[in-house]
Specification:
By secondary structure, the chain is of the alpha/beta class. The chain is 31% helix and 19% strand. The chain contains 14 helices and 22 strands. It has helices at 14-25, 42-45, 77-90, 179-188, 215-223, 225-232, 235-249, 254-270, 274-279, 297-301, 359-362, 396-415, 426-441, 467-475, and strands at 6-10, 29-33, 97-98, 103-109, 114-119, 124-127, 129-132, 154-157, 171-175, 194-198, 205-207, 292-294, 306-309, 313-317, 320-323, 328-330, 333-336, 350-352, 374-375, 378-383, 422-424, 482-484. The chain has a six-stranded mixed sheet, covered by helices on one side. Helix 1 (14-25) links the parallel strand 1 (6-10) and strand 2. Helix 7 crosses helix 8 (254-270) and helix 12 runs parallel beside helix 14. The protein is globular, with a radius of gyration of 23 Å. The relative contact order is 0.15. Bound molecules: ligand NA7.
């Protein structure tokens, strides 16, 4: 282990912070480049009312950094942001982060076996290894609705929440019924004069328990982190991860049937008005879209201030939204919970690997990476939560940590001086993609609905095998799948 490497980490969100802590622990030389003025990534960007992490709080932590301070089973976005700030301070990586430093270009130099990284403004630096931790749900997707720009009231995407917009006692329109839209309904229903929820597609809702942790419980967690471990590594959570992953990969099996039954019963038992019940009944299988976990949506949506609009939007006009049947909803504020461009990743930064190969060209058909982390033609370039990464509905922290363990073993090859550059072979990656695509099409995500999991050809871009297979695969890279030069 004698080669001293220079590392660039791109992004100071959950995965970039993880990389920084791990690199610091190994005494490595690294810089984290963060384009904004704060850490937190998606948790910094999203501040909408009702923002909640849909992974139980104690399970949404780094394994090495349990946290006794969670207020409730499901944490608010602000609390999650606070957790990451706490971790950055505790592990002393704040000063390793360069803020206001947007990476705009990366170019591989084959002769020197290094990357030249360029920042907005033109400053350039050289690194042996690049860790790309730039996030997934990061580029807001605005709907293609006629007249959107003509709206005279407040109008914004959920990831750009406008605190000055009229909400309390106002007439608010909310387009979108993903996790974001659903959470916003739960927060706004009791505040607005009227909330029109434009639901192009309703969602299945998995009921979950929300409960507060008491001061006594937090004291106990502080005194004995084994109590925290019992929650995050215990069967209730981890068993659920495995069962759910089995369900979505065996879509005609009993576990999927159980998921469907629970969601159906939730709808049947929670929604009183038969007309509203039918409006809220999806016409696709549960978990085909990313399943929504909520303890409060059905209550909130039955608030008399909420109107569920399932018609098609014809256009936006200066004072509201016109439906194709002529109905007009007069609005003060229009909130766009219309999701993200999930296929962008580090782009629009330009990445150029071997022989002038650009990331745009390599990803012309679909974003792809070998087991979601490495790319043929892009040596010493490692992605955390890269394309095809998400496993089930669960914690991306767990995924990133396991990916890190895999990546770190590849970096060891460079540390040991066995090569100056490592990347997967084209053949190994093509074999992975062929197997992944075939398996992905048989998962619940490929069962016939639209969602941000699907790539441009309708193939789910997620881990298509079991959780145990994921753990096993991440435990050790197969070096024979890599070109080491
Ligand atoms: P999602 O899950 O991508 O949801 C976007 C929603 O916006 C979805 O209900 C879409 O309906 C709707 N949408 C998009 N465009 C339109 C137009 N033009 N008209 C009407 N409705 C539209 O984004 P979220 O932010 O909720 O969640 C993303 C992830 O963030 C979530 O899964 C968590 O992992 C965190 P559609 O279903 O396409 O009919």
């Amino acid at each position: 282990m004698d080669r001293k490497l220079r590392f660039a980490v791109i992004g100071a969100g959950m995965a970039g912070i993880l990389a920084a802590i791990k690199l610091k622990a190994r005494g490595e030389t690294f810089t984290v480049f963060e384009k904004t003025d704060r850490i937190g990534g998606t948790w910094r960007e999203n501040r909408y009312p009702g923002l909640t992490c849909d992974v139980p709080s104690h399970a949404y932590t780094y394994t090495f950094a349990p946290y006794a301070e969670w207020r409730a089973n499901y944490a608010t976005g602000a609390e999650v942001q606070g957790y990451f700030e706490h971790v950055v301070e505790t592990y002393g990586v704040h000063d390793d982060i360069r803020f206001h430093s947007e990476v705009t270009g990366l170019v591989w130099d084959e002769a020197q076996a290094h990357w030249t990284l360029t920042l907005a403004g033109g400053e350039a630096h050289v690194f042996d290894v690049v860790i790309c931790a730039s996030g997934v749900l990061h580029h807001p997707r605005l709907p293609d609705i006629e007249g959107l720009d003509s709206f005279a009231g407040a109008k914004f995407h959920t990831a750009r929440w406008d605190d000055s917009a009229p909400i309390d006692g106002a007439r608010v329109g909310l387009v979108g019924c993903g996790s974001t839209g659903v959470q916003i309904v739960t927060a706004l229903a009791s505040r607005v004069k009227k909330l029109v929820h434009f639901q192009r597609s309703p969602q299945w809702i998995m009921p979950v328990q929300q409960f507060a942790f008491s001061d006594e419980q937090r004291d106990a967690f502080r005194a004995d982190t084994g109590l925290i471990d019992a929650i995050r590594f215990g069967d209730e959570y981890l068993g659920n991860v495995k069962r759910f992953t089995d369900a979505i990969t065996h879509i005609d099996g009993p576990l999927m049937k159980a998921v469907e039954d629970i969601c159906l019963q939730n709808l049947e038992n929670s929604v009183r008005d038969p007309v509203l019940k039918e409006k809220l009944r999806p016409d696709y299988r549960a978990a085909c879209k990313r399943l929504i976990y909520s303890w409060s949506f059905y209550d909130a949506v039955q608030n008399p201030a909420v109107e569920v609009e399932t018609g098609r939007i014809a256009r936006v006009e200066p004072t509201g939204v016109r439906m194709t049947d002529g109905t007009f909803h007069e609005l003060d504020t229009l909130v766009l919970a219309t999701g993200f461009h999930a296929d962008r990743f580090i782009r629009p930064a330009g990445v150029t690997g071997q022989n002038g190969l650009t990331l745009d060209a390599f990803w012309a058909r679909r974003p792809t990476a070998h087991y979601a982390m490495t790319l043929p033609g892009f040596p010493n370039f490692f992605m955390l939560n890269g394309p095809t990464g998400p496993v089930g509905n669960f914690s991306l922290i767990d995924i990133a940590e396991r990916q890190w363990d895999y990546i770190d073993q590849l970096i060891d090859v460079l540390r040991r001086g066995e090569g100056r550059a490592v990347m997967p072979t084209t053949t190994a990656h093509a074999d992975y993609e062929e197997r992944r695509i075939a398996a992905a099409k048989t998962t619940i995500f490929g069962s016939g609905c639209s969602s941000w999991y699907l790539d441009a050809e309708g193939v789910p871009a997620s881990w298509p095998w079991s959780y145990d297979t994921f753990v096993e695969t991440m435990s050790k890279p197969k070096l024979e799948e890599f070109a080491i030069a």
